[in-house]
Automatic annotation (TrEMBL), chains A, B:
The keyword Endoplasmic reticulum does not apply. This is Polysaccharide deacetylase family protein. Residues 1-18 form the signal peptide. Pfam families: YdjC (PF04794). One of its GO terms (biological process) is carbohydrate metabolic process. Gene3D superfamilies: Glycoside hydrolase/deacetylase. One of its GO terms (molecular function) is deacetylase activity. It comes from the Bacteria. PANTHER family: CARBOHYDRATE DEACETYLASE, YDJC DEACETYLASE FAMILY MEMBER. Keywords: Carbohydrate metabolism, Hydrolase, Magnesium, Metal-binding, Signal. Its cofactor is Mg(2+).
């Protein structure tokens, strides 16, 4: 009897230990290591975004990106990555079209809840949450993943444009996790989503193995206030100097401040062409690269994270 | 009895005279006048095409254009024309997507015959004629006209991108004429279409008042051979010096040879960014303007043609 209880005790310790191993540790790092994914959102959006993002990954030190499949320029990415088969590239699930003069609609057929009166996607997540049914969102996520596969992308991960998957209905997050699992790659999630959405809807998420989700520790992103007060270089320098331990996904947006991008982002004060050029400049700069080294930050990719499972 | 026959005789002479009046005469010109519509196809295609086309109409001597509604940049045109409410702008019914890396699909819902396996439009008219049903094409024509109206365009005419309406099935031409009539503006047709399509399918076209169609006399357009042998300036100089009498629609394509347009037209040897820049250069040049004067060519617009009915 004592022997049996010892076995049980050891079993539970092992189990508990397994559960408590952080994702960083599973990747072979320590709990206190500072790990960073430098992730350029929005490739596929425009020609300018495409060539600047690829350049920031091949000439600079951006190490991951994700594609907006519904945009007119997404298929160009399939061609651009042919010479760079190992780039980290996920599917940036896109449910919104936020620009005034540059448009796209859903990829799936018969998803009227994802279309405004003009047939294009809504400009904001609130409208998506209000108008789109969970079934329509799931259909659209699937259509976007399948479209990425068709142009030769082997997605390393899923994430969400403007976060509409996370700030919409819990069913949206469920479909996102379910389809990532079905297609066999991780989906970006942070602990807050697990606590506030998944654990509060156990019935909805019962088919998701929550304990084995590849949950990164935090997301960092420049905000309008930060941009106005510190500028991009100031923000990233501060971030790198004070980076928390664990895995941080730093979400940036890389494009050139050229005629096309000025017109795409016209009348937007933030996330516009100058913002994206500032991101390009920093993440291709020697100064930025040196700050990564000086702060002992280790760059990790979604491909490495996916290899954990 | 004699009186009655005289009345009949006069009636038939009048009728015959009315029928024989050319469109040029109905516009107040003589049969031998050389009338020209300088028509820039493809506004809406890209930002570069949009701003170059507007510039060629406001700074140069292009006097008509037509919009490709399914393209990502079409709504920008709604904004660009606000300051130029009298520009001649029609709907360039678009059933094809001919570029390698820049994509669009249909505007109508549930028109799978207009979509290739990737969901975008086919690159050529032959595939449209083979795969799209007349009902789908009619639905798409309607969707494109309605989309143009939604962004504030008051269409002056209809025409057809790459001529797919004319070289597809006769039903396509029928829907095009039927919807132009329904919405109240002329649709570009030339005598060959009347003879070879309309008159050979009288049953199909029985609801079209063929005798009162606003048929222009001819279309002129640069071809790859002409482009290679004479260049744009050579072609247009020759054309203007030898212009036939009646109404000619000269179809040109105006954009800048910039990064966006180079990428839109990548690997296309013709109708590409340098071709479109050459059109822009000629139709904003003093030389071109002088040639119009020297050859006593009178510029007419679709708005004027529409006023005939």
């Amino acid at each position: 009897m004592k022997k049996l209880s010892t076995i049980f005790f050891l079993f539970f310790v092992t189990l508990s230990f397994a559960q408590e191993r952080t994702l960083a540790e599973k990747l072979g790092y320590t709990k206190t290591d500072k790990l960073l994914i430098i992730h350029a959102d929005d490739i596929g959006l425009s020609h300018s975004e495409n060539i600047a993002t690829i350049s920031s990954m091949t000439e600079g030190f951006v190490n991951s990106t994700s594609i907006m499949m519904p945009c007119a320029w997404s298929t160009e990415v399939g061609e651009l990555i042919k010479d760079h088969p190992n780039l980290d590239i996920g599917v940036h699930i896109t449910l919104t079209n936020e620009w005034f003069n540059y448009k796209w609609g859903p990829m799936a057929d018969n998803v009227p809840g994802l279309q405004g009166p003009d047939g294009y996607m809504y400009p904001d997540c609130a409208s998506v949450a209000k108008n789109a049914s969970p079934a329509e969102v799931e259909k659209e996520i699937r259509a976007q993943i399948e479209a990425a596969l068709r142009i030769g992308i082997k997605p390393t991960h899923l994430d969400s444009h403007m976060g509409c998957i996370f700030y919409g209905r819990p069913e949206f997050l469920h479909s996102y996790l379910k389809l990532a699992k079905e297609f066999g790659f991780p989906a970006m999630v942070v602990p807050e989503m697990v606590e506030s959405i998944i654990k509060t809807n156990p019935e909805l998420f019962k088919d998701i193995d929550v304990d084995n989700l590849l949950v990164i520790d935090q997301v960092a992103i420049a905000s309008p206030t930060i941009y106005d007060e510190k500028g991009m270089e100031g923000f990233y320098s501060d971030l790198f100097s004070n980076l928390e331990s664990g895995i941080t996904a730093l979400l940036i947006h890389v494009a050139y401040d050229d005629e096309e991008m000025k017109a795409v982002t016209v009348r937007h004060l933030y996330w516009n062409s100058t913002w994206r050029q500032a991101d390009y400049d920093f993440f291709t700069s020697e100064k930025g690269r040196q700050l990564i080294k000086d702060n002992n930050i280790k760059l990790v990719t979604w491909r490495e994270i996916a290899s954990v499972n």
